[in-house]
């Protein structure tokens, strides 16, 4: 009987240990961002605020990443890291905290890296709230977004389209968004000791074990009291589960086991994580595209008079079959490239002609198609997919396009040139892409070239007149010529 009890006890403890491992796999992850050292309007406390919150969360067994005074590129790199973590464990809780300047520009909420210098149109030094929302909704775990922004808005008085504060954004499913202040209002930077009123209230309430909804009601009351009603935090939530920042008990208390007992845990089977992550990357975004089709309203689908007009269910089934039939014919790497193309465009053709009898082809660049679906571009996913495709021998044109236009990354025309050129052996359009970039730069200096990708005598002469180069033009500008052209264009912008 004693042996029997011992065996049951050992089995129970082993199962509890596996439960502990499962709990540890769901360890929440927090990205803390604090930007104080702006060129245009430095702030005293954001970097301190992010550091203080990171310290407290680590004490509660959160995995954390703290970045203080980062560029926008650094912030985007950290968002990409979260994207990868979520692909490894789609249920993992994720928190993103941002402290610094924020503003609404032409209906888009913007957060600023330290490298922002006020050029809203080019988007340099800017992270959009859409970038962050795309990241937190990767996977189906619980998401938290805390925005301690809008400390001031130095551009509101002289930059058209800029509004005070951040605009209201509804939380996507299983997401909690907390704003330090109400839409269109300032958030106080606070004093040098306690930091922002929002940070102070959050840290004070973080010591209590309570559900997040109750916690933020108390935080709001605390901030209102501290600021005499001038600052009113608010939330947007669509949580599907309860959550507490502070664990209810320690692991040892929960297991109630002797420290002397060490259960035997079988060794894990070796896994090729690099290969597995690559497979998961493509599969994950294919599922995301299928979900986009399923969730799209009928108004997002275009059906012309030449096509068969289908009801909502049959129309979506048509798109699903086209997508799945097409991808069966592609390699994993080519599939990644195709998905990146679709996510950059926010545009999907099931075929070039709606009455096609075989639903086995996607036509991503058929501009006279009868059918198409439009949706919001997913630049985070596009960048991951395009990078994976390029690293594994596919065309580099999509990465070049993203650097050319500032999709998810900062605009970098030289890098775009290098990427277009790197794909010359597999991309028949690499010359067109480079020449169109050059023609657009030339036109920006007052010329009126046709941007057709053909770098003929008129394009060549116009370029030479700008950069003072007397060399003969080739089929494309040389890298040195293009660098000089970018420099001339940048001088005009500055």
From TrEMBL:
Residue stretches making up the Peptidase C14 caspase domain: 29-243
Signal peptide span: 1-22
Domain of life, per lineage: Bacteria
Gene3D superfamilies: 3.40.50.1460
Source organism: Endozoicomonas euniceicola
Swiss-Prot/TrEMBL keywords: Signal
UniProt KW Cytoplasm keyword: no
Short name of one Pfam family: Peptidase_C14
Protein name: Caspase family protein
């Amino acid at each position: 009987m004693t042996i029997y009890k011992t065996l049951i006890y050992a089995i129970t403890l082993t199962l509890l240990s596996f439960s502990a491992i499962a709990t540890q796999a769901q360890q929440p992850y927090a990205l803390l961002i604090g930007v104080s050292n702006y060129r245009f309007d430095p702030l005293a406390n954001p970097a301190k605020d992010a550091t203080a919150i990171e310290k407290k969360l680590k004490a509660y067994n959160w995995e954390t990443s703290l970045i203080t005074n980062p560029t926008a590129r650094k912030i985007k790199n950290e968002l990409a890291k979260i994207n990868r973590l979520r692909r490894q464990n789609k249920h993992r809780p994720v928190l993103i905290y941002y402290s610094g300047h924020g503003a609404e520009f032409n209906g888009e909420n913007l957060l600023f890296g330290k490298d922002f210098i006020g050029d809203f149109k080019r988007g340099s030094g800017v992270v959009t709230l859409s970038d962050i929302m795309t990241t937190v909704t990767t996977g189906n775990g619980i998401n938290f977004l805390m925005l301690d922004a809008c400390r001031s808005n130095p551009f509101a008085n002289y930059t058209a389209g800029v509004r005070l504060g951040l605009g209201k954004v509804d939380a996507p499913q299983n997401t909690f968004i907390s704003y330090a202040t109400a839409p269109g209002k300032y958030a106080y930077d606070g004093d040098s000791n306690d930091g922002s009123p929002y940070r102070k209230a959050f840290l004070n309430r973080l010591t209590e074990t309570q559900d997040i909804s109750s916690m933020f009601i108390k935080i709001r009351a605390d901030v209102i009291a501290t600021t005499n009603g001038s600052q009113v935090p608010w939330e947007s939530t669509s949580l599907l589960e309860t959550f507490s920042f502070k664990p209810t008990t320690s692991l040892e208390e929960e297991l109630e086991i002797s420290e002397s007992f060490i259960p035997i845990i079988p060794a894990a089977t070796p896994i090729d994580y690099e290969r597995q992550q690559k497979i998961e990357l493509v599969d994950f975004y294919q599922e995301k595209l299928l979900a986009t089709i399923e969730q799209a309203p009928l108004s997002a689908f275009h059906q012309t008079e030449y096509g068969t007009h289908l009801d909502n269910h049959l129309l979506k089934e048509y798109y699903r079959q086209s997508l799945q039939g097409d991808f069966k014919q592609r390699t994993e790497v080519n599939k990644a490239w195709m998905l990146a193309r679709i996510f950059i465009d926010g545009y999907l053709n099931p075929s070039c002609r709606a009455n096609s009898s075989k639903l086995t082809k996607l036509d991503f660049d058929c501009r006279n198609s009868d059918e198409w679906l439009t949706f919001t571009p997913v630049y985070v996913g596009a960048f991951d997919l395009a990078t994976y495709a390029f690293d594994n021998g596919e065309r580099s044109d999509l990465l070049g396009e993203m650097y050319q236009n500032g999709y998810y990354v900062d605009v970098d025309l030289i890098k775009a040139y290098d990427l277009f050129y790197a794909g010359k052996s597999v991309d028949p359009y690499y010359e067109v892409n480079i020449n169109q970039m050059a023609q657009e730069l030339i036109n920006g200096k007052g010329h009126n070239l046709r941007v057709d990708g053909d770098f003929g005598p008129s394009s060549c002469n116009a370029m030479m007149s700008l950069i003072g180069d007397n060399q003969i033009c080739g089929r494309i500008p040389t890298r040195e010529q293009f660098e000089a052209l970018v420099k001339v264009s940048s001088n005009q912008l500055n």
